[in-house]
């Protein structure tokens, strides 16, 4: 049943215009079973987010928590049925893949790639160059290290090439460089910035990744690009200069960590101006947090009206992507408020309730708004290029 938050007039329009009856079931009912070339048929509902997005060539993804995938049946079923791309929330980060210097552990990431293949999903690789979640043998804080600059250069090249080669052919989009700028639009003084004596590490990282897998789409990924301002402008100037130098960059990821206490950003214009540089764009880590009660009710908004603001933010974030032809994927940063990074990170004051599914993995009103937007999106420009047009 559709939630009362949906205006009735819009609901009937959905059924007429969209041609898809929205069952309101976000999980269980099997829909058409497209037959993959090999392997098991994949079952997912015709009104799933992945099926509805595919009609305009958009991929609708999610970050995946590998502690839950496979062991939590409801979680695993939703991950397979609702999404056409998956992003490892943590398991492809350097700290996880090379905890001890010289010894790789790909097990969890390989399991996600296998899951994606089984479910006809593409994979966003996340992330190759970052200052967070580095192994302690490399750096404990991302800004200091005992290793020399020349050693760091050799290590970064090896890390990128070993990892990209390991997953060669299996990754649709790589987040090659993540969060190289701070909130003031200044380059972060990370171990990479210091080793190169500037931002030159970014061009090298893209070139090395491209050598290792020429078919993967290579992205720069960051937060707050959604808002026009010093940070968005700094990243715009960076990627413009990378394009001018013929560095193999294909796209820019707008993380989209939104909060109802701030105004809704100038997202569509920012997506469009980056796209106008000849780049793909994507919303890569969307969540919409709001003020919530103290634990154990950290996912219950303090203001009972907050979910309406959240619905609006989700809807506008999706529509901004739909309106820009070069926006090829829309990815919430997980599903199920219990698994979100938000309550643990923003706890004074407490925030949470940021995803489309609640703590019991039941779809929230935000889910139904997004589902309806997708059902009504047949007039949006159809996306093209590798990975688009199918689900
Ligand atoms: O969701 C991730 C969380 O589980 C990790 O503890 C955290 C470590 O910094 O990283 C989170 O994911 C981040 C992503 O990799 C990059 N953009 C910001 C995300 C939220 O912090």
UniProtKB/TrEMBL annotation:
Entry's EC annotation: 3.2.1.8
Alphabetical list of Pfam families matching this protein: Glyco_hydro_10 (PF00331)
Superkingdom of origin organism: Bacteria
Signal peptide: 1-28
Keyword Signal: yes
Sequence similarity: Belongs to the glycosyl hydrolase 10 (cellulase F) family.
Domain GH10 span(s) in chain numbering: 46-373
UniProt keywords, alphabetically: Carbohydrate metabolism, Glycosidase, Hydrolase, Polysaccharide degradation, Signal, Xylan degradation
InterPro entries documented for this protein: GH, GH10, GH10_dom
Presence of keyword Signal: yes
Catalytic reaction(s) noted: Endohydrolysis of (1->4)-beta-D-xylosidic linkages in xylans
Protein name, entry field: Beta-xylanase
